[in-house]
Amino acid sequence: MKRALCRLLSAVSLLPLPAAASAAETAVDATTIFRFEQRDISGASKQDLMPATQFLGLDVEKLADGNLSLHFSGWGRADLADKSYNNDRVDGSFTYGYLQYRFKEANANVRLGRLFVHEGIVNEQVDGISARTDLPLGFGLSAFGGATVHTKHLYGEKSDGKGDSIIGGRGSYRYRGLLELGASVVYEDNAPRLVNYATTTHRLVGGDIWLSPVRMVEIMGHSSYNTETRTLAEHSYLINLTPVRSLVATAEFNEQRDRSYLSAWAMFSGAALNPSDKSRSLGGSVSYDVAKNAGLSADYKHYTREVGNADRYGVTGRLSFLNNAVRTGLGYHYLRAGSGFAIGTNPSASYHELHAFALYDSAGIFAALDGIDYIFKDKVYNEKSAWEGTASLGYHITPALALSGDVSYGRNPQFTEETKGLVRLTYTTTFDRKGGKK
Questions:
Q1: CA 281, CA 210: separation in Å to the nearest integer?
Q2: Structure confidence at residue 390 (pLDDT)
Q3: I need a surface site. Which of 165, 171, 230, 405 has the fewest CB within 10 A?
Q4: Residue 373: count of CB within 10 angstroms of its CB
């Protein structure tokens, strides 16, 4: 039943295209990537990887009476040498594909097909339908429902651990441009029983807030509660301060109760986690434009896990030249992390991080150099550091078509040597209703 619904929705979403496309505006975004990589792992034979990947995005606006639109995104990959990922030489994904109708009143719209829903605490991919509208007195309402989008079966199982259907929605209240409050719910069909994994059904309720009492202050966040584990799942809050145009300060707080937050993700055996385990992060950043072409930023974040605490802090400097055609940056960060985060029996997972980059972009040529180096406080698999350098060069054949390539080389504790390269062909354009380019 579910597969039939998926095929029906996908077919319906594509039906109007041939008849109406000639009167519409069509935007195409296509990228073809040929990647070349040679892996040399200690104790194993070298691997030559050459996956070819095609990404395709399509947006058709102003269909029918002008308020209907079609949106599609997907990718496919074929391995031309050794297998690059899992046991499939050919793979792909239909990311989304839906019809959307925007009503002229109440900021209302309806979507039908495979789509993402991001409303309050809701972050779902669904084969089904969603709708939203503004209501009088500042209230709003949105709802969605349909079949769950399944991924690959878990190892040794005949399912990915998800239920077959899902519904949900959000009610909201907005007061002028100062405040918005929301209440959301997600209700998934009963999760299947698994042989090798523990899982629970994905069901959440929660609330969210957006507050901007004055222009320079913006507060946003949400909290969710897992009705299956009957405990809080997540708090996530962010404050942005912009006292002057050149200065931006940000502070954030995040906390997840691991079992409630991960319980529906069978791949991570979330339901088997200790109910009292939680993860927390608290931090902030400051960014200041010293001059029109120069900026400095500093950031700090403190992590708390059941295995210990960690701190990451550092600074980044940016410069630009030639009317922003050349941009450069240099950064330093240090991660202080104890043995609970370390690989194997290492006494710590602390390291220094050095990062430098330079970009050049013109009407014809674009290029980039990027280098990153991790210097470990304690050796990892007898290696003091891990580093990688990448060089990129591209050419705009036409304003819509570009050909580019990347080459990178590095050394790290996992791979003795790693050499990678790719060739990328990108096509991005928009056609108007007469068939000409915009």
A1: 20
A2: 97
A3: 230
A4: 16
